[in-house]
Amino acid sequence: MKEISGEQYPEWDLLVSWVAVVASGSISRAASQLGISQAGLSQRVMALESTLDANLLDRTTRPARPTDAGKRLYEQATILLQSADQMVDSVRNLTRAKRNVVRLGCIDSFAAVVGPMIIKALVGTSHQVRLWSGMSSVLHGQLESRQLDLAVTNRGPAESAGIHCQLLFSEPYVVVLPASFQIDRLTTLTELSSHLQFIRYSARQIVGQEIEHCLQLHSENIERSCEFDASDPLMSLVAAGIGFALTTPLCIWQSRLYLPDLKVLPLSAFSGNGRPYAEMIRSFYMCFRENELGSLPRSLHDLIRVGYESQIAKEMAHGLGMPVDQVYLHP
């Protein structure tokens, strides 16, 4: 029995024993699970009742059943023990983070363009980073199942409890065409599709879902032809003069091998009903479990924000022949 500020609190093992009794439904099964005798477990229950000055078991029934007080204790003790487990995991993970590998998952375009900057910045520090790439939905699942420690995705704040998401930056969607394609007047994307095939990202990708939403918003009804999960095959077809696509500066920069054969235009260069298309953006978030990894998430967040704005965004703007504010949007 512990005494804190004049209050008497039950020993930890007594609470563990009580949760086992209620969860298993009998003292004999609980004793077997805990590896102690039935008599020893009965003594623990009685010690717990004495500490709390409450009857926890109705011994007039066979088998004995928890009283209302016993049920309430079971509910509260279960929450307390779960919180204790989370506390232990959090402390252990924090300690591991100081000396072990940190697993960072990123969507493909981000990993290809920003990943080298992250790795270079952390060389020589106490952190070693393993960089994984994949789709946002997959990365969030890996973060929730603890296969990843951090993830950079296009999804906003996660629904899962304990997962925190911080906005890194955003970028506008643009239209990419073959460099050789000439047209006197730009109106709707549907009209453009009468000259070039529309090459899409698949709906498995968030970028594909957002583009589909944009088309619906502007009442664009474009025939489906080619669809891809990745940017490289999409850009190769555009560069070959086969079609056009909606994409983002970062995706183009990931596939900049094809840049000499591409023409990049802002979405506002197109119009419907006499009005330029509204800007559509893609945002990036750093997601991680709260109260873990110490200051690492904040440090990486700041590193990416500063490095992207001061270096990568400027290189992209120069290479794409566009103003910086057409390839990078401040958070």
Automatic annotation (TrEMBL):
InterPro entries according to UniProt: HTH-type_LysR_regulators, LysR_HTH_N, LysR_subst-bd, WH-like_DNA-bd_sf, WH_DNA-bd_sf
Keyword vocabulary terms for this entry: DNA-binding, Transcription, Transcription regulation
Transmembrane segment boundaries: none
GO cellular component, one term: cytosol
Record domain HTH lysR-type: where: 10-67
Keyword Protein biosynthesis included in the entry's annotation: no
Coiled-coil region(s): none
Highest taxon of the lineage: Bacteria
PANTHER family, A to Z: HTH-TYPE TRANSCRIPTIONAL REGULATOR YBHD
Family: Belongs to the LysR transcriptional regulatory family.
Protein name, as recorded: LysR family transcriptional regulator
Originating species: Trinickia dinghuensis
